[in-house]
Amino acid sequence: MNALEQAAGFVTVARVSDVEPGTVRVIELEGRSLCVGQTEDGEWGAIDNVCTHDGGTLGEGELDDAAVECPRHGGRFDLFTGRVLALPPVRPVAAYPTEYGIRVLVTLARSDGDDRCLSLAEIAKREKLPHAYLEQLAGDLRRAGLVTATRGQSGGYRLARPAAQIAMTDAIRALEGPILEMPCAGVGDLEHCDRRQPCSVHEVFQRVYESLSLSLGATSLAEVLATAGGPPYPIEVRRRRIALTAERNTQETPTA
Ligand code: FES
After folding, report:
1. pTM (two decimals)
2. 88 lines ligand 1 (CB under 6 A)
């Protein structure tokens, strides 16, 4: 681990730069164990490293196109969404595009007054995130018109418009697609439903969709920034984190 990574709090099992196209690796960041992979096409993804079937280490598995194959029993997960693609697992693993993407936006919003671009390396260091994966997310944010990118030595990313004009719905749609994975949920989208009417779940999904859209649409990036950091963790949580860090450091100290 180099001094920069130490200062940033990185615990490196493998470097993101070690991840060859068409492979996955285990990357540990801030107490979170990730399976980070790069497809043959150069697209990056990151999902939880622990298989939901029986604890297999996904970062030690194989990557076939965008499917991560668990080395224990061959279950498969989507590298970008964590969705199950092949049994035996039935539950998805967590993926983090929204969390990481919003962290990128918050970091850019925080430095918006400085009138300068931020490089992804700088954002990755500040937020302790896998740099290469951020390129993927920053690309999604740029295509959605939420950030702009400038090339060159002092280039980097900045918000495309003031934080008060970026709603969380814009960010989530850019990073994950539809707010709710239900093709018929949304005004005027009923024709996408291929079930016979009346549909037993449409009403409830419509209500969930409306409530999510309303609350996320009314929350701007500026508000997220204003509450970033939040109250300090309760004392018992802080104790648990200190104990966990101490335990991890002991495991990593090489024995003579
Ligand atoms: S532990 Fe992953 S498929 Fe069984």
Report:
1. 0.76
2. yes
